[in-house]
Amino acid sequence: MIRLAINPLTWTNDDMPELGAETPLETCLAEAKQAGFAGVELGNKFPRDAGTLRPILARHDLALASGWYGSRLLERDVDAEMAAAEPHLALLQAMGCTACVFAEVSRAVHGERTTPLSRRPVLSEADWTVLTPRLDEMARRIAARGLRLAYHHHMGTVIETAAEIDRLMTSTGPAFHLLLDTGHLTFAGGDPVLAARRHAARIAHVHCKDVRAPVMAQAKARDLPFLAAVLEGVFTVPGDGCVDFSAVFAALPGYEGWLVVEAEQDPALAHPLTYARMGHDHVAALARRAFAEQP
């Protein structure tokens, strides 16, 4: 079954908490439902225990689609990482999630406001031999908890480019899955349609993020930090940028899971409910045709 969710970044930003700081969680949830969504991902204003979170989401008739976890497997072993991830995994399990959004953030620069993206970390051969077996083991252990590790390639991190995604997927086993983020892969110079075709069988979660091509070109030309590019407006919701979501969905036959509208923008410049509706309606219309069902 295909369901549509939205990330609360539309209303309030995790990496730049001053963006949308004044917006309460209840507004995010009420407007997500008003825009037509069936679920939401976690954000920095969400309580992190199921007993508190469950009735809040129930009031708005929303499910929890998943939530981001940043790992440091280049710096610590799997036992230590599993211990660090335990509260997050327990919350996702208790809330009925099927996937864990998972990204390696060792050495990452995406949250650094003055570090340009050209200085993002690149894995050495020695790093690959450390990271991929640990990621593979994490995926197996998370699978034993009833969740799929959905790896989130991300600008400013060690897995950013299409080539890095391909190597990661060929270096890991069937328990390891991919989160396809259309916006991040486009910004990284990749083709989300090609990636969808190549890895369709192991894509467990999709972030539907659009890109304003002229802003992206300027951000690259000026070698901006990631958050500076966000503030310039590099990302937007589906239907407002250059990503061909019809082709992306066509490359995912048989996909079952969440399609998550996500766009880091300044809510003072991009009215959250307006953009939430725009993203929902664009994705819903295309998903109905691609997956032959009403999301």
From TrEMBL:
Q: Tell me the Pfam families matching this sequence.
A: AP_endonuc_2
Instruction: Give all residue intervals belonging to the Xylose isomerase-like TIM barrel domain.
Output: 29-274
Q: Which InterPro entries match?
A: IolE/MocC, IolE/XylAMocC-like, Xyl_isomerase-like_sf, Xyl_isomerase-like_TIM-brl
User: What domain of life is recorded for the organism?
Assistant: Bacteria
Entries under NCBIfam families matching the protein: myo_inos_iolE (TIGR04379)
Identification of the protein by name: Myo-inosose-2 dehydratase
Q: What is the phylogenetic placement of the source species in the record?
A: Bacteria, Pseudomonadati, Pseudomonadota, Alphaproteobacteria, Acetobacterales
Q: Which gene encodes it?
A: iolE
